[in-house]
Amino acid sequence: MATVTNWIDHLSADEVVGAVYPGAGSTETLLVILGIVIWIGWHVITNKSESEELSRLSRKRHGANDHKSNITDW
Question: I want to staple 23 with a disulfide (CB 3.0 to 4.6 A). Which of 27, 37, 46, 47 is the partner?
Answer without folding.
Answer: 27
